[in-house]
Amino acid sequence: MTDPRTPEDQTPTPQATETPIAETQTSDSQRRILTPGSDLNPRREFLRSAAMFTGTVAALGGGLEVLTRRPGLSSAEAQAADPFSRADRPLGPYDTKEKVTPYQQATTYNNFYEFGTDKSDPARLAGSLKPRPWTVRIDGEVRKPQTIDIDTLQSWFPLEDRIYRMRCVEGWSMVMPWLGFPLAALIRRLEPTSKAKYVQFTALLDTKQFPGQKQQVLKWPYVEGLRLDEALNPLSFMAVGLHGRTLPGQNGAPLRLVVPWKYGFKNIKSIVRITLTDKQPLTTWMQAAPQEYGFYANVNPAVSHPRWSQATERRIGELGRRKTLPFNGYADEVAALYKGMDLRKNF
Ligand SMILES: Nc1nc2c(c(=O)[nH]1)N[C@H]1C(S)=C(S)[C@@H](COP(=O)(O)O)O[C@H]1N2
Ligand SMILES: [Mo]
């Protein structure tokens, strides 16, 4: 199996088209009312240009049916009201103030090899992924192994916004406004036994929904993992939405992991199984190329990928490159997790 990855600067990027989002008056309790394929955050009403309606919507696949236009608001006004771009938006403790990557780019420039290795494959093919009905198997070192319907699982937690940087190992980055809940809240609720030391995540295996799984570019299903203390860190997040709406298929519907201090490939999409275990999981990328991808995969500008430097990155939508920060800028929150570890060996 040869590693299909190349550094990002060899790949062209799509054009930007901002998707305007505006706020409406809805109580916080209504934020919890979730229906399949609906807007996850009823506080916001989504406005899209006529071009988006006719052009892109079909390509974006499931979960994007709710497209409404608020009467009397021009597209420019709607854009100014975007809760993620507005300067006075109240920021959460972990939110970055950096400019959020527009919805159009975050949903058309994707890595999701279950659909194919091209950046445009996921958006083009995500319609074949059916995020409802969906169950998540919880097993291993937990008091009550169980299979939970995704809507039940979501209803356990109030949804939060998190605006996180995301840095792909290929050398590009985005700023993603996620909606979801802390992974720690889920793990606590599952009551791990004293033997639980790691969390293993498994994505869906289904060649009907994932045409790319007919090719053995990776060993399917995609598997990822975290040490239990990493999983319990307040930054670790389970996303069910993006830009205020249901997570599109190409971004990992209906449930994906977000660990912003690690390279993007740790952020496993379309999770069907979460296993608490006493053994370090063998992740998909470690299995594919162990000399190139380690278990930790913490963003580290000082340690090059064997085939390219990790010192800089290109923010999607920007020209030029910026310096990559240790732990992707989240060192204050997570560096203590790796105290005493050699981060060159544990790459
Ligand atoms: N199941 C699955 N999850 C995955 C991948 C994948 O191929 N399959 N690619 C990863 C990589 S390499 C990156 S950079 C991010 C990209 O997330 P995004 O498309 O939402 O930006 O998803 C990660 N999660
Ligand atoms: Mo990536």
From TrEMBL:
One of its GO terms (molecular function) is oxidoreductase activity. Residues 9-28 have a biased composition (Polar residues). Mo-molybdopterin binds at N110, Y113, E114, C168, N251, R256, N267, I268, K269. It holds the Pfam family Oxidored_molyb. It catalyses: L-methionyl-[protein] + a quinone + H2O = L-methionyl-(S)-S-oxide-[protein] + a quinol; L-methionyl-[protein] + a quinone + H2O = L-methionyl-(R)-S-oxide-[protein] + a quinol. Binds 1 Mo-molybdopterin (Mo-MPT) cofactor per subunit. Residues 85-97 have a biased composition (Basic and acidic residues). Its cofactor is Mo-molybdopterin. It comes from the Bacteria. Keywords: Metal-binding, Molybdenum, Oxidoreductase, Signal. The keyword tRNA processing does not apply. Its EC number is 1.8.5.-. Residues 130-285 form the Oxidoreductase molybdopterin-binding domain. The keyword DNA damage does not apply. CDD domains: YedY_like_Moco. PANTHER family: PROTEIN-METHIONINE-SULFOXIDE REDUCTASE, PROTEIN-METHIONINE-SULFOXIDE REDUCTASE CATALYTIC SUBUNIT MSRP. Part of the MsrPQ system that repairs oxidized cell envelope proteins containing methionine sulfoxide residues (Met-O), using respiratory chain electrons. Thus protects these proteins from oxidative-stress damage caused by reactive species of oxygen and chlorine. MsrPQ is essential for the maintenance of envelope integrity under bleach stress, rescuing a wide series of structurally unrelated cell envelope proteins from methionine oxidation. The catalytic subunit MsrP is non-stereospecific, being able to reduce both (R-) and (S-) diastereoisomers of methionine sulfoxide. Belongs to the MsrP family. This is Protein-methionine-sulfoxide reductase catalytic subunit MsrP.
